[in-house]
Amino acid sequence: MADGKCAFCNYRVSLSAKFCPKCSHPLILHNRYRLLWQEGKGGFGSVYEATDIKLGRRCAVRSFLRQGFFAAQ
Ligand SMILES: [Zn+2]
Question: Which of 1, 56, 63, 68 lies at a 20 to 30 A Cα distance from 49?
């Protein structure tokens, strides 16, 4: 069984886990986007590399402070 890493604390997590057992951050957003790692951080929030599970391809997910997560290309 493949392992992944929590994008928030780098804790090793199972790929089927929906939440990190260590920091309890969600690892899958909207049942569709699996967060892989943090790509960058800016004034508005953070950008995460993610996998679009439905389409089976990479995408970027942005998190805006106070507004939650949004998928972007
Ligand atoms: Zn974590």
Answer: 1
For residue 3, report the distance from its CA to the centre of ligand 1, in Å.
13
The answer to whether 8 and 38 are in contact (CB under 8 A) is: yes
Q: What share of the chain is helix, strand, coil (3-state, %, to 5)?
A: 0, 55, 45
Domain boundaries, the chain: 3-72
Domain 3-72: CATH class, spelled out: alpha beta
How far away, in angstroms, is 64 Cα from ligand 1 center? 19
pLDDT in tens, 4-22: 889 889 999 988 889 999 9
Report the chain's terminal Cα–Cα distance, integer Å.
29
Q: How far is the CA of 54 from the centre of ligand 1 (A)?
A: 23
pTM here?
0.77
